Amino acid sequence: MALDNITAFQFFGSVALGLVGFKIVSKLLPWAYVNIIGPALLGPKLNIRRMGGWAVITGCTDGIGKAYAKALAKQGFSLVLISRTLSKLEELAKEIENEYKVETKIIDVDFQSGVEIYDKIKARIEGLDIGVLVNNVGISYPHPEYFLDCYQQNPKFLLDIVAVNIHSVTHMCALVLPVMLNRKKGVIINLSSGAGSIPSALLTAYSATKAFVIKFSEDLQTEYRASGITVQCLKPGFVATKMSKIKKASFMIPTPDTYVASALRILGYTTTTAAYLPHEFIQIACAVMRYATCEPFVSNLFFKHLLSLRKRALSRASQKK
Ligand SMILES: NC(=O)c1ccc[n+]([C@@H]2O[C@H](COP(=O)([O-])OP(=O)(O)OC[C@H]3O[C@@H](n4cnc5c(N)ncnc54)[C@H](OP(=O)(O)O)[C@@H]3O)[C@@H](O)[C@H]2O)c1
């Protein structure tokens, strides 16, 4: 009887271990393929250069957008450069034309304005064989803040963050997709953020707009995969840009150029990705923590961290006064 019990215990123990092992391996292998093995051993999954002659980039005069502009011009794309400040656009267009010998068009629009800006963009991109759209433009909080304080300090901020982070993505896709569908090929790269999938209290409105971008991108990919469209949704952690207010890059906080090179390397392997291994590891660690412990514990841990960043930002601001 005792032997039978031990045998049953061993049997069910082995089955349980086998199931857990299978679950881990079935997650780990595809992850390793799309993030490491595929890009390193097999190279690019798709030839982005064959998608069309033009690439469109929003929010292109700084940070990640500027890095995309240069990386795509280097590959021979002519560029539609869309951003807010005309003088910066003119300067960038001149720099890119001189360095990469490609054609550029500039469109100065403020994505915080009304939907009429999309008529202007539509008119300016008419007839171009657009192969790549990078929906990069985005705004965030000046520092982590309680939702109501954001609203009370600037009531228009909530409209602006939705207009820039969400409307720009959906409207630009609506303008460019028909061109891509006609030619049955195209790449759409949408900038979300790690904040869109990890707990981000005190960045509540920002992180919710970025969660929208993830959901939108994944369902858009499913709708148009069979029509030759590749959607990549990026969830970076910190990148050294004006938005993050981090000047010095490091292994954990890449320069925009390093980040974009990494994202282009894994284009086509998977839809939603941090696209930079150290950021991918942080997001996996967070997912494991949420799975292995209770959700409020993890949310609180991040909340406390963001509270300390808020405190530091507020004390710096009060010292400046
Ligand atoms: N940096 C990070 O750590 C990080 C992390 C996660 C996700 N992201 C996402 O990555 C994207 C790029 O971020 P970034 O750090 O490169 O930003 P950034 O350095 O602040 O650059 C933003 C660019 O967008 C333009 N822009 C801003 N507001 C605009 C508006 N209302 N209308 C038109 N253009 C506007 C800016 O032009 P002006 O110079 O004229 O203002 C600039 O060219 C964003 O979607 C962001 O949410 C960034």
From TrEMBL:
The keyword Membrane applies. InterPro entries: NAD(P)-bd_dom_sf, SDR_fam, VLCFA-Steroid_DH. GO terms for cellular component: endoplasmic reticulum. It comes from the Eukaryota. The chain crosses the membrane at residues 6-25. Residues 79-106 form a coiled coil. Keywords: Coiled coil, Membrane, NADP, Oxidoreductase, Transmembrane, Transmembrane helix. GO terms for molecular function: oxidoreductase activity. Belongs to the short-chain dehydrogenases/reductases (SDR) family. PANTHER family: RH59310P (PTHR43899:SF13). This is Estradiol 17-beta-dehydrogenase 12. It comes from Zeugodacus cucurbitae. The gene is hsd17b12.
